[in-house]
Amino acid sequence: MEIRILSHTPNPELIVALAARQSWSSKKVEDLKKELTPEKVSSFLRKLYKMHHLSPFEHANFTFLVEGISRVTSHQLVRHRIASYTQQSQRHVEVTEGKFVVPETIKNKSSTHSLYTKAVKSAVSIYKKLINEGVPLEDARYVLPSSVTTRIIFTMNARELLHFFKLRTCIAAQWEIRKVAEEMLKLVKEIAPNLFYYAGPPCVEGICPEKKFCELFKKYYKKKS
Ligand SMILES: Cc1cc2nc3c(=O)[nH]c(=O)nc-3n(C[C@H](O)[C@H](O)[C@H](O)COP(=O)(O)OP(=O)(O)OC[C@H]3O[C@@H](n4cnc5c(N)ncnc54)[C@H](O)[C@@H]3O)c2cc1C
């Protein structure tokens, strides 16, 4: 899979801090902006998060390109409603061979791998035959497995991303979407480390709703002030 940030709100940390600051002040926005040094922005954003004052986080948007994920995972992704999505259409773009995700649990045993490959090859071959018989792409695709890869562009704001990371970087989420979420988290942290200081599974804040206290708990749980 390939994941990139295509664009984002310029100065996302400053705009969030400024939005919150002005809501409590009678000063001019330009003056408040001058007061907001990087150190103040950093501590203020963490304070906002701790206070659950999250609506200012909605002013920072991030647009992602994700390629090479399965339709299983894109379906899980688009369940997150506070976002905008545009996905490559199987009604217009023909599926080609080799564009299928193979889970490790299938790949790591030759017998299961060969069963899987046989099933996918057969589906693709029937897909092609249907198209050659004049069936439109939009109908021929009904024979394709949901492991077929897709490309999707989507935009989420920082508040929704915090929520998304909480659900999808947790061990409870399936491995493929967890991989997507972990990579997205890495990318946004490079741009806005303070906006996403507390981002990650619930164990970042010491909570384990799964009551599994798994490896991720050991990795992520550190008391953050
Ligand atoms: C481990 C795991 C297992 C899952 N298993 C299943 C499953 O078996 N079956 C299944 O169908 N789904 C499953 N899901 C998907 C899950 O139910 C959610 O649809 C998905 O995680 C999106 O999360 P969300 O609804 O909290 O948030 P988003 O859609 O991202 O919305 C963010 C928040 O906005 C608020 N919000 C958004 N829309 C509304 C609304 N219409 N009304 C009120 N508040 C709203 C809510 O507070 C919500 O938490 C699973 C998810 C995970 C992480």
Summarize the SSE layout with pairings:
Blueprint: E1 2-8, H1 12-23, H2 29-35, H3 38-50, E2 61-70, H4 71-77, E3 83-87, H5 104-107, H6 110-132, H7 137-140, E4 149-157, H8 158-168, H9 175-191, H10 215-220
Antiparallel strand pairs: 1-2, 2-4, 3-4
Helix pairs in contact: 1-3, 8-9
The structure holds flavin-adenine dinucleotide.
Flavin-adenine dinucleotide (FAD) binds at residues 79-82, 160, 163, 167-168, 172-173.
Count of DSSP strands:
4
What would you call the structural class?
A: alpha+beta
Strand order of the largest sheet: 1-2-4-3
Low-confidence regions: none
Shape: elongated
Number of domains: 2
CATH architecture of the largest domain: 2-Layer Sandwich
Largest sheet: 4 strands, antiparallel
What is the chain-wise order of helices and strands? EHHHEHEHHHEHHH
Average per-residue pLDDT, rounded, comes to: 95
Tell me the radius of gyration.
Answer: 22 Å
Q: Report, as a whole number of angstroms, the end-to-end distance.
A: 35 Å
Strand portion:
5-15%
Which CATH class of the largest domain is shown? Alpha Beta
Small molecules bound in the structure, each named once: flavin-adenine dinucleotide
Write down the CATH topology of the largest domain: Gyrase A, domain 2
Instruction: State the share of residues found in helices, binned by percent.
Output: 40-55%
